[in-house]
Amino acid sequence: MNRIVRLLTILAGLWVIGGTAAHAADRCASEGKIHYLCGPTNVEDMVHVQGTRWIIASGMTGPGQAPGRLYLIDARAKSWTPLIPDVSGAARAPYGACPGAPELATLAPHGVALRQGARPTLYVVNHGGRESIEIFAVEAAASKPTLRWIGCAVLPAGASGNAVAPLPGGGFVATRFQTAGDPQAFQKMAAQVKDGLLYDWSPRAGFKVIPGSQMSGANGVEASADGKWLFANAWPEKRVIRMRRDGAGAPRAVTVDFLPDNIRMAPDGQLLVAGQDSDMKTLLSCPKAHCPHDWTVIKLDPVSLKITPVLHVKGTEAFSDATIGIQVGHEIWVGTYRGDRVAWATLP
After folding, report:
1. How much is the average pLDDT of 265-285?
2. How far apart are CA 228 and CA 215, in angstroms?
3. Which of 281, 310, 284, 278 is nearest to 297 (CA)?
Protein backbone atom coordinates (compact mmCIF):
# COMPACT_ATOMS: atom_id res chain seq x y z
CA MET A 1 0.00 0.00 0.00
CA ASN A 2 2.78 2.45 0.89
CA ARG A 3 4.34 1.80 -2.53
CA ILE A 4 1.03 2.65 -4.25
CA VAL A 5 0.66 5.81 -2.17
CA ARG A 6 4.19 6.88 -3.08
CA LEU A 7 3.49 6.21 -6.76
CA LEU A 8 0.27 8.22 -6.66
CA THR A 9 2.10 11.08 -4.91
CA ILE A 10 4.80 11.11 -7.60
CA LEU A 11 2.20 11.05 -10.37
CA ALA A 12 0.31 13.90 -8.70
CA GLY A 13 3.52 15.90 -8.44
CA LEU A 14 4.29 15.31 -12.10
CA TRP A 15 0.78 16.43 -13.01
CA VAL A 16 1.23 19.64 -11.01
CA ILE A 17 4.63 20.30 -12.59
CA GLY A 18 3.29 19.56 -16.05
CA GLY A 19 0.23 21.71 -15.46
CA THR A 20 2.38 24.57 -14.23
CA ALA A 21 4.68 24.28 -17.26
CA ALA A 22 1.69 24.17 -19.60
CA HIS A 23 0.21 27.25 -17.91
CA ALA A 24 3.53 29.10 -18.24
CA ALA A 25 3.78 28.11 -21.90
CA ASP A 26 0.23 29.34 -22.56
CA ARG A 27 1.02 32.59 -20.76
CA CYS A 28 4.01 33.13 -23.05
CA ALA A 29 2.24 32.06 -26.24
CA SER A 30 2.74 34.00 -29.44
CA GLU A 31 0.22 36.63 -30.49
CA GLY A 32 0.03 36.47 -34.27
CA LYS A 33 3.42 37.37 -35.77
CA ILE A 34 4.75 38.54 -32.40
CA HIS A 35 6.63 35.94 -30.37
CA TYR A 36 7.87 36.26 -26.79
CA LEU A 37 10.83 35.36 -24.66
CA CYS A 38 9.46 35.53 -21.13
CA GLY A 39 11.41 36.22 -17.97
CA PRO A 40 13.57 39.33 -18.56
CA THR A 41 11.88 42.22 -16.75
CA ASN A 42 11.54 45.83 -17.89
CA VAL A 43 13.99 45.49 -20.80
CA GLU A 44 14.22 49.16 -21.75
CA ASP A 45 17.19 48.83 -24.11
CA MET A 46 19.18 46.16 -25.97
CA VAL A 47 22.29 45.83 -28.11
CA HIS A 48 23.41 43.04 -30.43
CA VAL A 49 27.02 41.84 -30.33
CA GLN A 50 27.71 41.84 -34.07
CA GLY A 51 28.62 38.52 -35.65
CA THR A 52 27.26 36.53 -32.70
CA ARG A 53 23.97 35.16 -31.39
CA TRP A 54 24.10 37.37 -28.29
CA ILE A 55 21.97 40.31 -27.16
CA ILE A 56 22.83 42.32 -24.04
CA ALA A 57 19.77 43.89 -22.44
CA SER A 58 19.13 46.32 -19.59
CA GLY A 59 16.38 45.63 -17.06
CA MET A 60 15.19 48.88 -15.49
CA THR A 61 13.93 49.36 -11.99
CA GLY A 62 10.21 50.02 -12.10
CA PRO A 63 6.90 48.14 -12.26
CA GLY A 64 7.40 44.49 -11.40
CA GLN A 65 11.08 44.73 -10.41
CA ALA A 66 12.92 46.39 -7.55
CA PRO A 67 16.63 46.05 -8.44
CA GLY A 68 17.90 46.75 -11.93
CA ARG A 69 19.94 44.18 -13.79
CA LEU A 70 21.54 43.18 -17.07
CA TYR A 71 20.54 40.17 -19.16
CA LEU A 72 22.23 38.02 -21.78
CA ILE A 73 19.84 36.79 -24.47
CA ASP A 74 20.62 33.99 -26.92
CA ALA A 75 18.77 35.07 -30.06
CA ARG A 76 19.27 31.69 -31.70
CA ALA A 77 18.18 29.45 -28.83
CA LYS A 78 15.54 31.94 -27.62
CA SER A 79 16.83 31.74 -24.06
CA TRP A 80 18.24 34.15 -21.50
CA THR A 81 20.28 34.36 -18.32
CA PRO A 82 21.17 37.15 -15.86
CA LEU A 83 24.44 38.88 -16.77
CA ILE A 84 26.33 39.75 -13.60
CA PRO A 85 29.37 41.97 -14.16
CA ASP A 86 32.70 41.51 -12.45
CA VAL A 87 33.26 44.77 -10.57
CA SER A 88 36.31 43.71 -8.59
CA GLY A 89 38.87 45.71 -10.55
CA ALA A 90 39.93 49.34 -10.51
CA ALA A 91 39.04 51.94 -13.12
CA ARG A 92 41.29 51.88 -16.16
CA ALA A 93 42.51 54.75 -18.30
CA PRO A 94 40.92 56.98 -19.48
CA TYR A 95 38.42 56.73 -16.61
CA GLY A 96 40.80 57.69 -13.80
CA ALA A 97 38.41 60.33 -12.45
CA CYS A 98 35.81 57.64 -11.70
CA PRO A 99 35.32 57.36 -7.90
CA GLY A 100 35.14 53.55 -7.95
CA ALA A 101 33.09 50.57 -9.04
CA PRO A 102 29.29 50.62 -8.72
CA GLU A 103 27.45 48.60 -6.09
CA LEU A 104 25.75 45.71 -7.87
CA ALA A 105 22.95 45.74 -5.28
CA THR A 106 21.96 49.26 -6.32
CA LEU A 107 22.95 49.25 -10.00
CA ALA A 108 20.02 50.68 -11.99
CA PRO A 109 20.64 50.24 -15.74
CA HIS A 110 18.76 52.31 -18.31
CA GLY A 111 20.12 52.87 -21.81
CA VAL A 112 22.93 50.70 -23.18
CA ALA A 113 25.28 50.98 -26.15
CA LEU A 114 28.05 48.84 -27.57
CA ARG A 115 31.32 49.78 -29.19
CA GLN A 116 31.69 46.89 -31.61
CA GLY A 117 34.96 45.27 -32.66
CA ALA A 118 37.41 42.61 -31.59
CA ARG A 119 37.23 43.93 -28.01
CA PRO A 120 33.69 45.27 -27.55
CA THR A 121 32.92 47.84 -24.87
CA LEU A 122 29.50 48.19 -23.21
CA TYR A 123 28.23 51.57 -22.00
CA VAL A 124 25.40 51.57 -19.44
CA VAL A 125 23.40 54.57 -18.21
CA ASN A 126 23.12 54.04 -14.45
CA HIS A 127 20.80 55.68 -11.90
CA GLY A 128 21.76 53.54 -8.91
CA GLY A 129 23.86 55.30 -6.29
CA ARG A 130 25.01 57.87 -8.83
CA GLU A 131 24.00 59.29 -12.20
CA SER A 132 26.71 57.89 -14.43
CA ILE A 133 27.79 56.06 -17.52
CA GLU A 134 29.30 52.75 -16.42
CA ILE A 135 31.77 51.13 -18.81
CA PHE A 136 32.38 47.39 -19.15
CA ALA A 137 34.75 45.32 -21.26
CA VAL A 138 32.83 42.56 -23.05
CA GLU A 139 34.98 39.46 -22.80
CA ALA A 140 34.64 36.18 -24.73
CA ALA A 141 32.07 37.95 -26.91
CA ALA A 142 31.82 35.23 -29.55
CA SER A 143 31.33 32.31 -27.15
CA LYS A 144 29.35 33.49 -24.12
CA PRO A 145 29.98 37.12 -23.17
CA THR A 146 30.95 38.19 -19.69
CA LEU A 147 31.35 41.74 -18.41
CA ARG A 148 34.28 43.27 -16.56
CA TRP A 149 33.83 46.80 -15.18
CA ILE A 150 36.61 49.14 -16.34
CA GLY A 151 35.41 52.60 -15.32
CA CYS A 152 32.71 55.24 -15.26
CA ALA A 153 31.98 58.85 -16.11
CA VAL A 154 29.79 60.61 -13.54
CA LEU A 155 27.26 62.86 -15.26
CA PRO A 156 27.28 66.62 -14.57
CA ALA A 157 25.46 67.75 -11.43
CA GLY A 158 21.68 67.75 -11.80
CA ALA A 159 21.61 65.52 -14.89
CA SER A 160 19.59 62.34 -15.16
CA GLY A 161 20.68 60.34 -18.19
CA ASN A 162 18.72 58.12 -20.55
CA ALA A 163 20.78 56.89 -23.52
CA VAL A 164 24.37 56.70 -24.70
CA ALA A 165 26.19 56.07 -27.99
CA PRO A 166 29.93 55.53 -28.62
CA LEU A 167 32.00 57.96 -30.66
CA PRO A 168 35.30 57.58 -32.51
CA GLY A 169 38.35 58.21 -30.38
CA GLY A 170 37.04 56.52 -27.23
CA GLY A 171 34.36 59.07 -26.37
CA PHE A 172 30.60 58.91 -26.29
CA VAL A 173 27.48 61.04 -26.50
CA ALA A 174 24.80 60.83 -23.78
CA THR A 175 21.35 62.32 -23.32
CA ARG A 176 20.20 64.35 -20.35
CA PHE A 177 16.58 63.24 -20.11
CA GLN A 178 15.56 65.39 -17.17
CA THR A 179 16.80 67.12 -14.03
CA ALA A 180 17.68 64.47 -11.47
CA GLY A 181 15.16 64.33 -8.63
CA ASP A 182 12.76 66.86 -10.16
CA PRO A 183 9.22 65.81 -9.09
CA GLN A 184 7.75 67.91 -11.91
CA ALA A 185 9.98 66.45 -14.62
CA PHE A 186 7.25 64.63 -16.54
CA GLN A 187 4.80 67.51 -16.20
CA LYS A 188 7.47 69.73 -17.76
CA MET A 189 7.93 67.25 -20.58
CA ALA A 190 4.19 67.18 -21.20
CA ALA A 191 4.42 70.97 -21.55
CA GLN A 192 7.48 70.45 -23.81
CA VAL A 193 9.80 72.44 -21.58
CA LYS A 194 13.27 72.01 -23.09
CA ASP A 195 15.07 70.62 -20.04
CA GLY A 196 16.90 67.92 -22.00
CA LEU A 197 20.08 68.07 -24.08
CA LEU A 198 23.04 66.10 -25.39
CA TYR A 199 26.47 65.76 -23.80
CA ASP A 200 29.70 64.97 -25.62
CA TRP A 201 32.26 63.14 -23.44
CA SER A 202 35.87 62.77 -24.45
CA PRO A 203 38.83 61.33 -22.52
CA ARG A 204 40.58 64.70 -22.60
CA ALA A 205 37.76 67.19 -21.95
CA GLY A 206 35.15 65.19 -20.08
CA PHE A 207 31.54 66.31 -20.52
CA LYS A 208 30.48 69.31 -22.57
CA VAL A 209 27.06 70.36 -23.84
CA ILE A 210 26.56 69.97 -27.59
CA PRO A 211 25.53 73.41 -28.92
CA GLY A 212 21.91 73.65 -30.05
CA SER A 213 20.95 70.26 -28.57
CA GLN A 214 18.34 71.53 -26.10
CA MET A 215 15.07 69.63 -26.41
CA SER A 216 12.26 68.25 -24.28
CA GLY A 217 12.83 64.76 -22.91
CA ALA A 218 16.04 63.89 -24.79
CA ASN A 219 15.67 60.13 -25.00
CA GLY A 220 17.45 57.73 -27.37
CA VAL A 221 20.59 58.77 -29.21
CA GLU A 222 22.75 57.36 -32.01
CA ALA A 223 25.83 58.62 -33.85
CA SER A 224 27.04 58.21 -37.41
CA ALA A 225 30.09 55.98 -37.89
CA ASP A 226 32.37 58.99 -38.32
CA GLY A 227 30.89 60.73 -35.26
CA LYS A 228 29.99 63.89 -37.17
CA TRP A 229 26.20 63.45 -37.06
CA LEU A 230 23.94 62.75 -34.10
CA PHE A 231 20.36 61.49 -34.07
CA ALA A 232 18.27 62.06 -30.95
CA ASN A 233 14.67 61.40 -29.99
CA ALA A 234 12.78 64.31 -28.44
CA TRP A 235 10.35 61.92 -26.78
CA PRO A 236 7.39 64.13 -25.74
CA GLU A 237 7.76 66.27 -28.88
CA LYS A 238 7.36 63.18 -31.12
CA ARG A 239 10.39 64.27 -33.12
CA VAL A 240 13.61 62.62 -34.27
CA ILE A 241 16.31 65.27 -34.60
CA ARG A 242 19.45 65.15 -36.73
CA MET A 243 22.24 67.58 -35.84
CA ARG A 244 25.93 68.17 -36.34
CA ARG A 245 27.98 67.08 -33.37
CA ASP A 246 29.98 70.29 -33.57
CA GLY A 247 26.77 72.33 -33.43
CA ALA A 248 27.26 73.82 -36.89
CA GLY A 249 24.14 74.57 -38.91
CA ALA A 250 20.54 74.19 -37.87
CA PRO A 251 19.26 70.82 -36.67
CA ARG A 252 16.73 69.08 -38.89
CA ALA A 253 13.80 67.10 -37.46
CA VAL A 254 11.14 64.71 -38.63
CA THR A 255 7.83 64.34 -36.78
CA VAL A 256 6.50 60.85 -36.08
CA ASP A 257 3.06 59.76 -34.88
CA PHE A 258 4.30 58.02 -31.72
CA LEU A 259 6.53 58.77 -28.73
CA PRO A 260 10.00 57.90 -30.08
CA ASP A 261 12.04 56.20 -27.38
CA ASN A 262 15.31 54.49 -28.32
CA ILE A 263 17.12 54.62 -31.65
CA ARG A 264 19.65 52.12 -32.99
CA MET A 265 21.60 51.69 -36.23
CA ALA A 266 20.44 48.69 -38.29
CA PRO A 267 22.87 46.50 -40.27
CA ASP A 268 21.94 48.30 -43.51
CA GLY A 269 22.82 51.73 -42.09
CA GLN A 270 19.22 52.78 -41.54
CA LEU A 271 18.04 53.88 -38.10
CA LEU A 272 15.53 51.78 -36.16
CA VAL A 273 13.25 53.89 -33.96
CA ALA A 274 10.81 52.30 -31.51
CA GLY A 275 8.21 53.87 -29.28
CA GLN A 276 4.75 54.05 -27.82
CA ASP A 277 1.61 54.94 -29.81
CA SER A 278 0.23 57.08 -27.02
CA ASP A 279 0.40 60.49 -25.45
CA MET A 280 2.26 61.19 -22.25
CA LYS A 281 -0.84 61.65 -20.08
CA THR A 282 -2.29 58.28 -21.11
CA LEU A 283 1.05 56.53 -20.89
CA LEU A 284 1.95 57.75 -17.43
CA SER A 285 -1.52 57.36 -15.92
CA CYS A 286 -1.47 53.56 -16.25
CA PRO A 287 -0.84 52.03 -12.80
CA LYS A 288 -0.32 48.45 -13.98
CA ALA A 289 2.72 46.50 -15.12
CA HIS A 290 0.94 45.86 -18.44
CA CYS A 291 -1.15 48.41 -20.31
CA PRO A 292 -2.54 47.77 -23.81
CA HIS A 293 -0.94 50.69 -25.64
CA ASP A 294 -0.10 50.18 -29.32
CA TRP A 295 3.55 50.37 -30.33
CA THR A 296 5.64 51.04 -33.42
CA VAL A 297 9.05 50.36 -34.94
CA ILE A 298 10.12 52.32 -38.02
CA LYS A 299 13.23 52.64 -40.16
CA LEU A 300 14.56 56.13 -40.74
CA ASP A 301 16.96 57.06 -43.53
CA PRO A 302 19.78 59.04 -41.84
CA VAL A 303 20.23 61.32 -44.87
CA SER A 304 16.74 61.94 -46.27
CA LEU A 305 14.92 61.24 -42.96
CA LYS A 306 12.43 59.19 -44.98
CA ILE A 307 10.34 56.86 -42.82
CA THR A 308 9.71 53.20 -43.67
CA PRO A 309 7.26 51.26 -41.43
CA VAL A 310 8.59 48.05 -39.88
CA LEU A 311 6.07 47.07 -37.19
CA HIS A 312 2.83 48.61 -35.99
CA VAL A 313 1.33 46.38 -33.32
CA LYS A 314 -1.78 46.61 -31.21
CA GLY A 315 -0.85 46.58 -27.54
CA THR A 316 -2.09 43.71 -25.41
CA GLU A 317 -2.03 42.75 -21.75
CA ALA A 318 1.02 40.63 -22.63
CA PHE A 319 3.15 43.33 -24.28
CA SER A 320 2.99 47.06 -24.98
CA ASP A 321 4.92 50.31 -24.51
CA ALA A 322 7.87 49.32 -26.71
CA THR A 323 11.09 51.22 -26.10
CA ILE A 324 13.72 49.58 -28.34
CA GLY A 325 13.88 47.67 -31.60
CA ILE A 326 17.07 46.01 -32.86
CA GLN A 327 17.72 43.80 -35.86
CA VAL A 328 19.41 40.44 -35.36
CA GLY A 329 19.70 38.57 -38.65
CA HIS A 330 16.20 38.35 -40.11
CA GLU A 331 14.48 39.18 -36.82
CA ILE A 332 13.45 42.34 -35.00
CA TRP A 333 13.77 42.15 -31.21
CA VAL A 334 11.71 44.58 -29.14
CA GLY A 335 11.92 45.58 -25.48
CA THR A 336 9.63 47.48 -23.12
CA TYR A 337 10.27 49.47 -19.96
CA ARG A 338 7.48 47.61 -18.18
CA GLY A 339 6.73 43.95 -18.57
CA ASP A 340 8.06 40.46 -18.02
CA ARG A 341 9.25 39.64 -21.55
CA VAL A 342 10.85 40.75 -24.77
CA ALA A 343 9.21 40.34 -28.16
CA TRP A 344 10.57 39.25 -31.52
CA ALA A 345 9.22 38.99 -35.03
CA THR A 346 10.58 37.66 -38.31
CA LEU A 347 11.19 40.27 -40.99
CA PRO A 348 9.28 39.76 -44.26
Report:
1. 92
2. 19
3. 310
